[in-house]
Amino acid sequence: MSSTWFWIVIVAVVVLVAVLVSGLLIARRRRISLEQARKVEEKPKGGGYTAAGGITFAPGGEADAAPAAEPVPAEHPVEDRPEVDGQPAVGDDAAVPRDSDQRTMRDVKLPEPESEGPAAAPVEGTVEPIEPVLPIEEIDPATGRLERLRGRLSKSRSMFGQSLLGLLGAGDLDEDSWQDVEDSLLIADLGAATTTQIVERLRDELSRRAVRTPAEAREVLREVLTASLSTDGIRAVRALPHEVDGQKQPAVVLVAGVNGTGKTTTTGKLARVLVSQGSTVVLGAADTFRAAAADQLQTWGERVGASVVRGKEAADPAAVAFDAVKRGIDEGADAVLIDTAGRLHTKTGLMDELGKVKRVVEKQAKVDEVLLVLDATTGQNGLAQARVFSEVIDVTGIVLTKLDGTAKGGIVFQVQKELGVPVKLVGLGEGPDDLAPFEPGAFVDALLG
Ligand SMILES: Nc1nc2c(ncn2[C@@H]2O[C@H](COP(=O)(O)OP(=O)(O)OP(=O)(O)O)[C@@H](O)[C@H]2O)c(=O)[nH]1
Binding residues for GTP, per the UniProt record (predicted)? Predict the structure, then answer.
């Protein structure tokens, strides 16, 4: 009897051991580890986005981007501005809720100019030029700025890069693992079409090159992602002057987007970069809705030494933009940057108003660059915004802000692919110098770590 029990126990132990061993083997096969795979997951989280160079600028007025459209006649010529002639304007149905109170205007008492030399002549109409009251700041050279941007993408990267590298570094991937790769891309906002394309290319490349090590897998991933960010459009910002009929013409840059994406901040940061490179800049505060917007822009202008043109009470934003460009031309400025009010892309009246701003400006100068500012933290919605804005004002470049605060940098891939508009700049913080050029390789490196 006791020998029977002995054999029963022996058989049970053998069966148990066999089950454990086969379980372990199956688990290992599902996640084949290449040598060093662990090391990839344990990579330190330091480093980040480091653009190889500074923000590049191109002269406006050239025809190598989209062909210049024939200017559309303004519905309300500037001479007949709605706030003075009582005519309804395109933006008059803009009685939609705003995220802040409409600015109640008061005349700003201008300080006596302290600097020597003649004061700029006031611009006629509804707009007043603002003279600086803050001391002009010294602006660091571009190299110093870029260095400080290190590490700003760490959140995006830890989500996107580490999970992808962890998966790909695990070797021969089974269908579940590929599904996980797909999920990682989707969660990072790359969108279904881009994700499918990237996964197909990854599968092809990994098997074609018989990838063996995590380092090789990383290289393939880097190449596939970087290639997916390539574009035919130029990434230089058209903010340098050009000549029209032998006369110097400032580059005109229009900055637009939905509320709170960072338009004013980006306009100010861009002015800083331009001024630091020796350009003279006029800022147009065509955001006549938000009480603080014009003040905010004025502060930026004062700090960098750029003139600011802002509207009087209930000024038509198109009139402010028009006068800013007029002032830029009169002063022989190099660039005029026009900050517009935030508007929901779903509000037709507001989008019409934006279209009018552009048309009115184009009565006297071509708009060389239309920058759409997208907040990276809004994810997929950014794409819908980009589509509508592009239809109304023919966007020529994207600025993706707040990349420092999101794990969803992947919207970059979608916006570029689906709109064919290059991402030109990225905002990596609230600081005055937290603006960097968009470079696909550097961006992917920062994501992957
Ligand atoms: N973290 C971070 N914050 C940013 C960035 N860019 C802008 N911001 C912040 O976003 C907030 C909104 O920025 P604004 O420049 O006022 O946005 P806006 O689009 O002009 O706003 P509206 O005129 O109301 O539409 C501010 O607190 C900025 O400091 C960025 O790249 N990173």
Answer: 257-264, 339-343, 401-404
Contacting residues for 249 by C-beta, under 8 A, at least 6 apart? 60, 61, 241, 242, 243, 329, 365
What is the Cα–Cα distance from 284 to 306, expressed in whole angstroms?
Answer: 10
What pLDDT shows up at residue 15?
Answer: 83
Question: Which positions of the chain have pLDDT values less than 50?
Answer: 27-47, 64-126, 146
CA separation for the pair 264, 432 (Å, rounded): 11
Type of residue at 82: P
The sign of the dihedral angle between the CA atoms of 28, 34, 36, 42 is: negative
Q: What is the pTM of this model?
A: 0.72
Summarised one tens digit per residue, pLDDT across range 47-67 is 356 666 778 888 887 654 444
Superfamily of domain 57-106+130-144+235-439: P-loop containing nucleotide triphosphate hydrolases (3.40.50.300)
Query: How many angstroms separate the Cα of 243 from the Cα of each of 264, 270, 319?
Result: 28, 22, 24
User: Ligand 1, from 297, 345, 430, 433: best to mutate by most atoms within 8 Å of Cβ?
Assistant: 430
Q: What is the pLDDT of residue 393?
A: 86
> 165 CA to middle of ligand 1, Å?
32
Ligand 1 centroid – CA 373 distance (Å): 10
Ranges in the chain annotated CATH 3.40.50.300: 57-106+130-144+235-439
The distance from CA 431 to its chain's CA centroid, rounded to whole angstroms, is 15
Q: Report helix, strand and coil shares of the chain as percent, to nearest 5.
A: 45, 15, 40
Q: Check: CATH 2.40.100.10 for 150-228? A: no
The residue to mutate among 153, 155, 255, 265, having the most atoms of ligand 1 within 8 angstroms of its beta carbon, is 265
